[in-house]
Structure prediction request, 115 residues.
Amino acid sequence: MDNCIFCKIIRGEIPGKFIHREGEWVAFYDISPKAPIHVLIVPTSHIESIADVHDSDGVLLGNLLLAAKKIAQKLKIDKSGFKLIINNGKGSGQIVPHLHIHLLGGWGKNPEWKV
Ligand code: AMP
Prediction:
């Protein structure tokens, strides 16, 4: 989508600190981290939120969760623990209307996380 910030990052029109790129999803660091490790897992196709997915998106949605596992392993937070968050709609705090999973972790022995 032309004016979508995440579509622009995926197309390389604005910079993103990528961890991984794959056909149907990418992972890059959040520009304003809310945890010691804060990564966004983002489908390359423009879907606004979970409220907009169809039955035919089931495989993609499963692959996004598998992507989160892979990135957690890559960043070595799979054993210590990590949190996945998806905001859906303005009322939930979604700012960027392009579906993304927040992957948060790396708190170590002094967790400061809040739900
Ligand atoms: P949400 O509130 O779920 O829509 O989350 C959007 C996230 O995108 C926020 O955590 C922002 O810090 C992050 N964000 C916004 N712009 C950028 C950017 N250019 N690069 C990386 N992350 C971004």
In short: The chain has one domain: 5-86.
